Amino acid sequence: MKLVVVDVGNTSTAVGLWSGGRVTRVQHIDWGNAEENAGMICRRTGFNRCTGLVEDLVPCAEAIAYVSVVPKADAPWRAFARRIGKPLIPITYRDFPLRLDYPKPETIGADRLADAAAAVDRYGAPVLVCDFGTAFTAAAVTADCTWRGGVIAPGLPLMRDYFCARTAKLPRIKLGGKCPVIGRSTEEAMRIGALVGARGMVREIVEHLSRAFDSRFRLVATGGYASWVLKDLDLPFTIDPTLTLHGTGLLAARALGRDGSPSRPSERSDNK
User: 221 has which bridge partners?
Assistant: First the structure.
Protein backbone atom coordinates (compact mmCIF):
# COMPACT_ATOMS: atom_id res chain seq x y z
CA MET A 1 0.00 0.00 0.00
CA LYS A 2 1.21 3.48 -0.90
CA LEU A 3 -0.23 6.61 0.67
CA VAL A 4 0.42 10.31 0.37
CA VAL A 5 0.93 11.49 3.95
CA VAL A 6 0.13 15.08 4.98
CA ASP A 7 0.87 16.71 8.33
CA VAL A 8 -0.63 20.20 8.68
CA GLY A 9 1.01 21.91 11.64
CA ASN A 10 0.70 25.36 13.09
CA THR A 11 3.80 26.75 11.41
CA SER A 12 4.50 24.28 8.61
CA THR A 13 2.98 21.58 6.43
CA ALA A 14 4.85 18.36 5.62
CA VAL A 15 4.08 16.05 2.71
CA GLY A 16 5.59 12.69 1.82
CA LEU A 17 5.01 9.24 0.34
CA TRP A 18 4.45 6.33 2.74
CA SER A 19 4.95 2.77 1.57
CA GLY A 20 5.44 -0.31 3.72
CA GLY A 21 6.58 1.68 6.70
CA ARG A 22 9.06 3.81 4.76
CA VAL A 23 8.60 7.54 4.18
CA THR A 24 10.21 9.12 1.13
CA ARG A 25 10.04 12.29 -0.97
CA VAL A 26 9.40 14.48 2.08
CA GLN A 27 8.96 18.21 1.59
CA HIS A 28 8.08 20.98 4.04
CA ILE A 29 6.42 24.34 3.56
CA ASP A 30 7.11 26.78 6.38
CA TRP A 31 4.33 29.33 6.97
CA GLY A 32 5.91 31.34 9.76
CA ASN A 33 3.21 31.31 12.43
CA ALA A 34 -0.12 29.70 13.25
CA GLU A 35 -2.32 32.58 12.04
CA GLU A 36 -0.43 32.86 8.76
CA ASN A 37 -0.56 29.08 8.30
CA ALA A 38 -4.35 28.94 8.60
CA GLY A 39 -4.71 31.88 6.24
CA MET A 40 -2.29 30.55 3.65
CA ILE A 41 -3.89 27.12 3.69
CA CYS A 42 -7.28 28.69 3.02
CA ARG A 43 -6.06 31.11 0.34
CA ARG A 44 -5.68 29.61 -3.09
CA THR A 45 -2.02 30.56 -3.65
CA GLY A 46 -0.80 29.07 -0.39
CA PHE A 47 -2.99 25.99 -0.61
CA ASN A 48 -1.84 25.33 -4.15
CA ARG A 49 1.75 25.12 -2.93
CA CYS A 50 0.78 22.20 -0.70
CA THR A 51 -1.54 20.45 -3.10
CA GLY A 52 1.01 20.80 -5.86
CA LEU A 53 3.36 18.63 -3.82
CA VAL A 54 0.59 16.11 -3.25
CA GLU A 55 -0.41 15.95 -6.92
CA ASP A 56 3.15 14.95 -7.81
CA LEU A 57 2.79 11.92 -5.51
CA VAL A 58 -0.85 10.99 -6.16
CA PRO A 59 -0.32 8.85 -9.30
CA CYS A 60 1.46 6.20 -7.24
CA ALA A 61 -0.75 6.38 -4.13
CA GLU A 62 -4.11 4.91 -3.17
CA ALA A 63 -5.24 7.62 -0.76
CA ILE A 64 -4.22 10.71 1.19
CA ALA A 65 -3.50 10.13 4.88
CA TYR A 66 -4.05 13.30 6.84
CA VAL A 67 -3.30 14.77 10.26
CA SER A 68 -3.91 18.40 11.13
CA VAL A 69 -3.93 20.75 14.11
CA VAL A 70 -5.43 23.56 12.01
CA PRO A 71 -9.23 23.00 11.77
CA LYS A 72 -9.61 25.71 9.11
CA ALA A 73 -7.49 23.61 6.79
CA ASP A 74 -9.75 20.55 6.86
CA ALA A 75 -12.45 21.73 4.44
CA PRO A 76 -9.98 22.80 1.70
CA TRP A 77 -8.22 19.46 1.96
CA ARG A 78 -11.50 17.53 1.73
CA ALA A 79 -12.47 19.54 -1.35
CA PHE A 80 -9.08 18.91 -2.93
CA ALA A 81 -9.37 15.16 -2.33
CA ARG A 82 -12.82 15.14 -3.98
CA ARG A 83 -11.43 17.03 -6.97
CA ILE A 84 -8.64 14.54 -7.62
CA GLY A 85 -10.81 11.51 -6.79
CA LYS A 86 -8.71 10.14 -3.94
CA PRO A 87 -9.98 9.14 -0.49
CA LEU A 88 -8.88 11.48 2.31
CA ILE A 89 -8.24 9.55 5.52
CA PRO A 90 -8.20 11.89 8.54
CA ILE A 91 -6.55 10.16 11.49
CA THR A 92 -8.64 9.81 14.64
CA TYR A 93 -8.25 7.98 17.93
CA ARG A 94 -10.37 5.15 16.49
CA ASP A 95 -7.44 4.17 14.27
CA PHE A 96 -4.95 4.05 17.14
CA PRO A 97 -3.61 0.49 17.62
CA LEU A 98 -2.60 0.92 21.27
CA ARG A 99 -4.74 1.06 24.39
CA LEU A 100 -5.72 4.59 25.38
CA ASP A 101 -5.81 5.25 29.10
CA TYR A 102 -7.28 8.71 28.67
CA PRO A 103 -10.65 10.16 29.73
CA LYS A 104 -11.52 11.85 26.41
CA PRO A 105 -9.47 10.22 23.63
CA GLU A 106 -11.30 12.24 20.98
CA THR A 107 -9.50 15.34 22.27
CA ILE A 108 -6.00 13.98 21.61
CA GLY A 109 -4.25 15.68 18.71
CA ALA A 110 -4.00 13.44 15.66
CA ASP A 111 -0.32 14.32 15.30
CA ARG A 112 0.35 13.09 18.86
CA LEU A 113 -1.35 9.78 18.10
CA ALA A 114 0.66 9.43 14.90
CA ASP A 115 3.90 10.16 16.79
CA ALA A 116 3.16 7.55 19.46
CA ALA A 117 2.07 4.84 17.04
CA ALA A 118 5.18 5.37 14.91
CA ALA A 119 7.48 5.40 17.95
CA VAL A 120 6.16 2.07 19.21
CA ASP A 121 6.29 0.58 15.72
CA ARG A 122 9.90 1.63 15.18
CA TYR A 123 11.37 1.51 18.69
CA GLY A 124 9.04 -0.49 20.93
CA ALA A 125 7.67 0.31 24.36
CA PRO A 126 8.02 1.80 26.89
CA VAL A 127 8.68 4.96 24.94
CA LEU A 128 8.51 8.68 25.60
CA VAL A 129 8.01 10.54 22.34
CA CYS A 130 8.67 14.27 22.18
CA ASP A 131 7.68 16.57 19.32
CA PHE A 132 9.61 19.85 19.02
CA GLY A 133 7.26 21.96 16.95
CA THR A 134 5.27 25.11 17.56
CA ALA A 135 4.30 23.48 20.84
CA PHE A 136 6.50 21.02 22.67
CA THR A 137 4.63 17.79 23.37
CA ALA A 138 5.63 14.65 25.21
CA ALA A 139 3.58 11.45 25.31
CA ALA A 140 4.23 8.40 27.48
CA VAL A 141 3.55 4.86 26.26
CA THR A 142 4.20 2.29 28.98
CA ALA A 143 5.59 -1.22 28.59
CA ASP A 144 2.10 -2.69 28.18
CA CYS A 145 1.65 -0.52 25.05
CA THR A 146 -0.80 1.85 26.72
CA TRP A 147 -0.88 5.56 25.89
CA ARG A 148 -1.03 7.21 29.30
CA GLY A 149 -1.12 10.90 28.42
CA GLY A 150 1.61 13.48 28.36
CA VAL A 151 2.72 17.06 28.54
CA ILE A 152 2.11 20.10 26.33
CA ALA A 153 4.34 23.15 26.76
CA PRO A 154 5.27 26.22 24.70
CA GLY A 155 7.62 25.40 21.86
CA LEU A 156 10.48 27.57 20.68
CA PRO A 157 8.45 29.45 18.02
CA LEU A 158 5.83 30.39 20.61
CA MET A 159 8.47 31.63 23.05
CA ARG A 160 10.14 33.70 20.34
CA ASP A 161 6.94 35.16 18.89
CA TYR A 162 5.49 36.01 22.30
CA PHE A 163 8.61 37.98 23.21
CA CYS A 164 8.34 39.96 20.00
CA ALA A 165 4.60 40.52 20.20
CA ARG A 166 4.37 41.50 23.87
CA THR A 167 7.45 43.69 24.34
CA ALA A 168 8.38 47.05 22.84
CA LYS A 169 12.01 46.45 21.97
CA LEU A 170 12.75 42.72 21.86
CA PRO A 171 13.22 41.50 18.26
CA ARG A 172 11.96 38.36 16.56
CA ILE A 173 15.09 36.24 16.67
CA LYS A 174 16.27 33.49 14.37
CA LEU A 175 16.36 30.07 16.01
CA GLY A 176 19.08 27.51 15.38
CA GLY A 177 22.80 27.66 14.84
CA LYS A 178 25.63 27.95 17.31
CA CYS A 179 25.13 29.94 20.50
CA PRO A 180 27.90 31.69 22.42
CA VAL A 181 28.39 30.96 26.12
CA ILE A 182 26.86 34.28 27.10
CA GLY A 183 24.90 36.84 25.14
CA ARG A 184 26.74 39.99 24.15
CA SER A 185 23.79 41.44 22.28
CA THR A 186 20.04 41.33 22.81
CA GLU A 187 19.64 38.75 20.05
CA GLU A 188 22.37 36.49 21.44
CA ALA A 189 20.96 36.71 24.95
CA MET A 190 17.51 35.75 23.70
CA ARG A 191 18.81 32.81 21.63
CA ILE A 192 20.77 31.46 24.60
CA GLY A 193 17.73 31.87 26.80
CA ALA A 194 15.57 29.99 24.32
CA LEU A 195 18.03 27.14 23.85
CA VAL A 196 19.08 26.62 27.47
CA GLY A 197 15.53 27.13 28.69
CA ALA A 198 14.21 24.54 26.25
CA ARG A 199 16.88 22.05 27.28
CA GLY A 200 16.06 22.52 30.95
CA MET A 201 12.36 22.06 30.24
CA VAL A 202 12.98 18.83 28.31
CA ARG A 203 15.20 17.43 31.07
CA GLU A 204 12.63 18.19 33.78
CA ILE A 205 9.75 16.71 31.80
CA VAL A 206 11.69 13.52 31.03
CA GLU A 207 12.69 13.13 34.68
CA HIS A 208 9.16 13.88 35.90
CA LEU A 209 7.50 11.28 33.65
CA SER A 210 10.19 8.68 34.29
CA ARG A 211 9.64 9.02 38.05
CA ALA A 212 5.86 9.10 37.73
CA PHE A 213 5.75 5.81 35.85
CA ASP A 214 8.87 4.29 37.40
CA SER A 215 10.06 3.54 33.90
CA ARG A 216 13.20 3.80 31.83
CA PHE A 217 11.58 5.10 28.69
CA ARG A 218 13.20 4.94 25.31
CA LEU A 219 13.46 8.57 24.26
CA VAL A 220 12.37 9.46 20.73
CA ALA A 221 12.17 12.98 19.31
CA THR A 222 10.82 14.57 16.16
CA GLY A 223 9.95 18.07 14.97
CA GLY A 224 11.90 20.88 13.38
CA TYR A 225 13.73 22.03 16.50
CA ALA A 226 14.66 18.64 17.95
CA SER A 227 18.22 18.59 16.62
CA TRP A 228 19.02 22.11 17.85
CA VAL A 229 17.66 21.58 21.35
CA LEU A 230 19.01 18.08 21.89
CA LYS A 231 22.52 18.57 20.51
CA ASP A 232 25.03 18.08 23.35
CA LEU A 233 22.23 17.33 25.82
CA ASP A 234 23.14 14.24 27.84
CA LEU A 235 19.87 12.41 27.26
CA PRO A 236 19.84 9.37 24.93
CA PHE A 237 17.29 10.65 22.42
CA THR A 238 16.84 9.13 19.00
CA ILE A 239 15.83 11.87 16.56
CA ASP A 240 13.42 10.66 13.87
CA PRO A 241 12.47 13.43 11.39
CA THR A 242 9.79 11.35 9.61
CA LEU A 243 8.10 10.01 12.73
CA THR A 244 4.80 11.90 12.35
CA LEU A 245 4.45 11.12 8.66
CA HIS A 246 5.24 7.45 9.30
CA GLY A 247 2.59 7.27 12.02
CA THR A 248 0.10 9.02 9.73
CA GLY A 249 0.61 6.36 7.07
CA LEU A 250 0.55 3.57 9.62
CA LEU A 251 -2.77 4.64 11.13
CA ALA A 252 -4.37 5.44 7.78
CA ALA A 253 -3.47 1.96 6.56
CA ARG A 254 -5.46 0.55 9.48
CA ALA A 255 -8.45 2.65 8.44
CA LEU A 256 -8.40 1.32 4.87
CA GLY A 257 -10.01 -1.86 3.66
CA ARG A 258 -8.17 -4.36 1.50
CA ASP A 259 -9.60 -2.81 -1.65
CA GLY A 260 -8.16 0.60 -0.73
CA SER A 261 -11.51 2.15 0.22
CA PRO A 262 -12.08 3.69 3.64
CA SER A 263 -13.37 1.23 6.23
CA ARG A 264 -14.89 4.19 8.12
CA PRO A 265 -17.55 5.59 5.76
CA SER A 266 -18.10 8.68 7.88
CA GLU A 267 -14.51 9.72 7.26
CA ARG A 268 -14.62 9.57 3.47
CA SER A 269 -13.30 12.61 1.64
CA ASP A 270 -16.84 13.56 0.58
CA ASN A 271 -18.02 13.78 4.18
CA LYS A 272 -19.22 17.34 4.81
Answer: 130, 239
